[in-house]
Amino acid sequence: MSRGNLLISAILWSVVALFVIYPLSFLMIESFKIAGTDRYGLQNYIDFFKDPYYLKTFGNTLLLGVLVLATTTLVGLPLAYILARYRLKGKVLFTALILLPIVLPAYAGAFALIVLFGKMGTINLLLMDWGLISKPINFVFGLHGLVFIQALHLLPFIVLSISAGFTNIDPSLEEAAEVEGASGWKRFLTVTLPLTSPNYLAGAVIVFLWPFTDWLTPLIFGQQDYLPSIAYINIAYHFTDMHRKYMGIVSVVISSLICVGIFLASKTWVEKKKYTALSKGTTLEGRIIETGLFTKVWAYAYMLFIAVFVLLIPIVLGLSAFSRRWVLQPFPSYWTLDNFRLIFLETPILLKNSFVFSAVALLFGVTFGLPAAYLITRTKVPGKDTLDFVITLMLAFPGIAVGVSYLLAFWEGIPLATHWIIMPLSLFIRRLPYFLRMAHASYLQLDVSLEEASEVSGAGKFKTFINISLPLLLKGVFVGLVMFFIMAFQEISTAIFLYRGGWETLPIGIYLNWHRGMEFGIAGAMAFLMIVIIFVLLLIVARIGGGILGAAWGSSGGKY
Amino acid sequence: MARVVMENVSKFFGTVQAVKDFNLTVEDKEFAILVGPSGCGKSTALRMIAGLEEPTTGTISIGDRLVNDLPPKDRDIAMVFQEYALYPHMSVYKNMAFGLKLRKFPKQEIDQRVREAAEILGIQDFLDRKPKQLSGGQRQRVAVGRAIVRKPAVFLFDEPLSNLDAKLRVQMRAELSKLHDRLQTTMIYVTHDQVEAMTMGTKIVVMKDGVIQQVGPPLEVYNYPVNLFVAGFIGSPVMNFVPCRILSQEGRLLIDAGSFQLLIPEKRIPSYHPLVHSEAIFGIRPKDIYDRAFAPEHLKENSVRSVIDVIEPLGSEIHLNVTAGQHNLVAVVDVQTTYRVHQEIEIVFDLDRMHLFEKDPPNLRIKAEG
Question: pTM here?
Answer without folding.
Answer: 0.79
